[in-house]
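Re-run requested by the PI after the first attempt was lost when the workstation crashed. Everything re-entered from the original request form. Ligand of interest: iron/sulfur cluster.
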Amino acid sequence: MFSRILIENEVKDLPTTQKILKRFPSLPYQFIDRIDDVFGRVKKPYLQKRQNLQLFLGKKRGQLVKEAPDAYGLAGEPHYYFIHAYNCIYECEYCYLQGYFHSPDIVLFLNHDEIAIEIQNTLSRHEGTVWFHAGEFSDSLALTHLTGELPFYFDLFRKFPHAKLELRTKSANTRELLKQTPCPNIVTSFSLSPQERIKKTDLKTPSLKHRLLAMRELQEAGFPLGIHLDPIIHEDNFEESYQSLFAEMDHYLDLTSLEYISMGVVRFTSNVFHQVKKNYPDSELLAAEFSSSFDGKVRYPRPFRQWILGKIRDIALGYDVSPEKVYLCME
Amino acid sequence: MDKTHLILTFAHRGEAQSFLKELPFKSIAQDHYQWDDGAIIRSLIITGEGLENTTLKLAKTLGDQSANHLINLGICGHIPRAGEEFSIGQVIQVRTAMKAESTNDLVFKSYTTSSDTKLKLPQADLISTVNRVLDKKNHAKFSPFASLVDREAWAIGLVADHYQTPFSVIKVISDFADGEFCQMVKDDALIWSDSLLREYLKWEALLLDQEKESDESFTQDFPELYLTVSQERTLSNLLKALRLKGREVSSLKEETNYNEICAQKIHPKKKSKIFLESLKDILNPLEKELRDRLSQQTKLLSQAGFQVRFDQGFEKEVLHLNISLENEEEYKRAIRALEQYDFKKFQKTIRGDLLV
Ligand code: SF4
């Protein structure tokens, strides 16, 4: 998976670093002073992640917890995200990370204790429920077997029941999660799409069936789950595709006990869309009926978005998902 | 530019010696050779060492005659690093070319080559330096970024980027960037030039194969159409997008009633326009549906003389109406049309209701 590990001198003796090095005994590694001295210093093409993906281990500096953009999660409650990693091992054609960093290399920040302090500081500024999202710049679960931070965050959030943690993922890597005792304020949310769409667009991600099997195991073990139907990509038979997606979801899961189902239609900043053209010139996304939208994003015109979301919401309600649990993301 | 034009650049004549000996290049100016085999023109340029020389020579050549592809061939130094340890004489394909003004000053702008995994050469990143790297002390600064160093490749990327021309770099490792350099270069130059020639010929065969594939003319499917340059571009984009959606030319002809459009006795440019519109409708069925609906809803307004416009992307529920009235009758007709207009229906449509 990785071609080389670059390790900040400051974290070289941490147990996680040692664990990762042990896990990849034949992988070459090198010590560096600061990740920022190397990562993204020179532009590295996104698709080099296929042949030459480097792993950086270090400390996140600067702001560790940030306010999430509007309409990020359930409305009416404050949302924050924290950054414990950059980049992702998967390769979704629409992924906004391809236009975000100057490098596709994976960075894992290991100073979770400092992130925890900032989470607590943020909490002290609020009274009611506050949401924290992990995985704004990465997948929250895909590498947890390497990084091992889950017990730390479970302990932390158990102490603050009014704080909610969302782990957002497309992976089926739930081994480490299943070792934890479920916590009512930690929601694992899976992004799902119809299998045909996953095959075409969500390159290298686990199949729908694998994700649903992993979700079933979690649900049976008592872990609170959420679902993101995001990004929804229109195709001629999209209603049928989403009908069968819901049928499959219903087969594996108890949909009525989900924490929420969020829905969002595919959208890009113009920079990311440019990257999609460059990186995936044969992607179906490039033949979609997008236009430049009010916020500068490339997306379907509003009537189509509303229509698509309306149709899928109706399908969800047909499965007895309560309307309050269905919300529209980034609309 | 009918023939394919490839530009090969070398810093030194020694690196190019096998090319000049084995291939029928003819000198056309100082340090400039050409071989035109009827289908392909290959220009071979000896740029001299260093980023400045390379930039100047190459920019001049490309300014005089555009090219389909640039390729830089030559020797480079190697700074072994974790996971990338090559040997002297090994041929490497460069992925990304960076530039360092000095050991502490890596320039952010880097250029990505059109490296091709089919070439089956090891790939690595390269830093072009202003001065030769002769001291092992500098290696630690460079090694987190790249394992190859030279003094030209970045300049090829710069010029290629300026002229929007793809470029490739193939290097043979001549030394370990530690000062043990000059004598060995002289001794092994012929062997290395041979290695470069061998890989170049493979590279060229791959490149020309790809060009042949992408050159297949789409217009040949529509010989009956007269297309302006901009219509040709539109057709090319539409066909590409429709192919991405899995649509075949034969079914598109049927769906657009292509033969009937061609048989119409109208201006040829108009025929092309109608055909292009039909393709657009097939590519964008939702937009067509919405447009048809809205034009149906605003028919009375248009008939009364209003020019009707909607918000771009239909983000706002706004209807822009424009009219010039010259007499009372026109005024009354306009008022009647406005009174009959169902604005709620318009709003519902924009909110995604009723669609399809
Ligand atoms: S899983 Fe998420 S972060 Fe990873 S590539 Fe896909 S969209 Fe990007």
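Saved to the shared folder this time. The CA atoms of residues 25 and 35 of chain B lie 5 Å apart.
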